[in-house]
Task: structure prediction
Amino acid sequence: MKLDGKTPPGPLAEKWTTYQSTVPLVAPNNKRRLEIIVVGSGLAGAAAAASLGELGYNVKCFTFHDSPRRAHSIAAQGGINAAKNYSNDGDSVYRLFYDTIKGGDYRSREANVHRLAEVSNNIIDQAVAQGVPFAREYGGLLENRSFGGVQVSRTFYAKGQTGQQLLIGAYQALSRQIARGSVEMYNRHEMLDVVTIDGKARGIIARNLVTGELERHAAHAVLLCTGGYGNVFYLSTNAMNCNATAAWRAVRRGALMANPCFTQIHPTCIPQSGDYQSKLTLMSESLRNDGRVWVPKKKEDAKAIQEGRKKGTDIPEADRDYFLERRYPAFGNLVPRDVASRAAKVACDEGLGVAPTGLAVFLDFSAAFERYGRSEAHVKGIHDADAATIRQLGEKVIEEKYGNLFEMYEKITGENPYKLPMKIYPAVHYTMGGVWVDYNLETNIPGLFVLGEANFSDHGANRLGASALMQGLADGYFVAPYTVGNFLSGEIRTPKIDPNAPEFLKTAGEVQERLSKLMNIKGNQSAESFHRRLGKIMWDNCGMSRNAEDLTKGRQLIRELREEFYKDLFVPGELNEFNPELEKAHRVADFLELGELMMLDALNRNESCGGHFRDEYQDEKGEAKRDDKNFAYVAAWEWTDTSKDPILHKEELKFENVELKTRSYE
Amino acid sequence: MSFLEMLDVLNEELVNQKKEPVAFEHDCREGICGACSLVINGQPHGPMNGTTTCQVHMRHYKDGDTIVIEPYRAKAFPVMKDLVVDRSSFDRIIQAGGFISVNTGQAQDANSTPVETDVASAAFDAATCIGCGACVAACPNASAMLFTSAKVAHLNMLPQGKVEAQQRVLNMVKQMDIEGFGRCSNVTACEAECPKGISITNIARMNREYLGASLGSEKTA
Result:
């Protein structure tokens, strides 16, 4: 199979505008006859469904939630990037493009990323017109702030709830189309397969989660906007129900899975507190501005803290290792996410972790309390302030800056972070890999499109902060309406697709069989317990740093677990009813296959880049060694059979506009 | 351990005993998606202020406590299974007018209309509603006035939403009534139980807007 990225010809900055003005169109009378299925109602899905509905297509939108407003885009905190240059600080479309390519460690497609930067400005306009209440300055104009990895202020935000506000904006646009009848909404429906007819995607099999019935839905094109697969690790900052099934089922029908080993581990999350935990919570990266990360120098101190005999405050200054400041003096505690995460793991692997599980490091604000307290005392004219007064004044300043985060931390952990240093640990947060798509966001299956986090296209090996919201909305509002139209312009003579066609009946039969198989194992272990074990295998062998030995072992462990799953799974309840356990079992079954592919991809990529760090490929200081000569390609995997290895297809990445450089933070 | 992790453990035990687990809704477990619900010992989202069920932790209870967990009870939120209720009536209220009519691509430059910070901030506060339905569950009349008014306030306050302001309030209130939500009798339990602290000022604002729209114009729902 020859992979064609279908990048349009011409200079980089003109590709998208030329595409827009030359792409074949679909006349309004034909739009009315064409049907489109959108799976997912997050930023990408809701934006695409609303925009395509506005254009006059007949859209059906599916979500497994009870309402499209619940999609996990809602949990994004920080903000959304755009190249508006409202701050007059030298930003431009090119600079946003360049930062994104570089931040992704040179593993994304230039043309896609440039288009993303181009449409970023339209997103902000659109959101404001919809009533998204972004932060504003006193003059009433929009305010920006800075984010990691860049030197300009280009991030638009709505307090710590930017994702919520943008999703509600898209949800409202979608609701307007639902009211007009141009979008038909299917809540509590989970897509379990793609149906192809003569090689084109023509519909889906969805399970009605209330009745358990399988439904066949036909359309001229299918868009998957189903998010990332971070929950393969069981513990992640993803919502409980995030899953890879839609994407994975597309791969099982011939789509390709690209760079699945590229996962982003976020350094500042609240650590796991016990075996019952099923979900991790992110603490904003901004805390690293004032917090210092450390572990005890001595193992016996760490052990005493783990066993509750000592507290962080009992360890004298001389016995603390501020390891980020020690290893990366130039950036200190503000090194990028992947670097900070790996360093914390190294410390904990040495037995220096500070939680009962051994998996946490301190994020300590005492130096900041002191620094701010002194300055505050000076401002207030208290020249002989004692230590307690200084501390108190300092705590007040920190409360103003991060009060809500400190409150959230206390709510979850029950510990007062003003009195004891916070404990944090890295957690899986985002997946850069995803279904392979070309410039049209179309997979190698004609008529099957993948948008947002579910595709692989824009973030390379590492995503920059505030870029996920940008990509989801860019794909949904501004890219898909053109590129899906491009495909549909060739379908105007295709009659309505019949959901009773033999291909639909066959696929529905296969789904039915798969579900019955899960129900009929009648073993002894719950889907949840298998998921938990899979997550541990993934984390231990394909987590923050990887090596050939672990990956080979991990792959074997997953195979064994999968075998056990199909022998000893127990799913209570019935097939044809509201059955959350069955939903979970099916998702875990797919994770068990995807997980193995991630191991294989990580094993194949003999280099370290972005979120993918291979122990074998580092320099003498422990920094990542990228191999542009041999690995400047997208690894797109073709599924064959569970018993055989997937087939690797390579899309070479050509860099015509940027020069490949090494990242350094020392 | 969080409250929902406690239910996870209960369910895992039930599954291990080959029994059916208790169905309940949840997703983000960060207090933002609005999927979790539950009335815990008579209070929607449990005992703490400004907190969703997923953010309640078991350390607030004593060993041996008996905890009564019920689904939301409201005519417009029919129970589907165990603790799961159908809140799609909220979606239909939004569909009736909870949007600004702007197609993709029609927007002007984002900075062409300045918005006073006080207005932007009040709109934001109203827009933080997570659509969980606690206001309805808390209300003795099962009224959806807080939910509906928060959306009306969010959009009607902003210059972008003014064009459709009258039509919006008329249509959304009409849909609220069609769905079978009760009337507001100023009990204010909704505000007390709202995990996002949405203010009842929004209800007053909506009443004013509604009156203005029904008396002062030719618009009808």
Q: What stands out?
A: Chain A has two domains: 1-6+34-262+432-657, 270-428. Chain A touches chain B through 77 residues (CB under 8 Å).
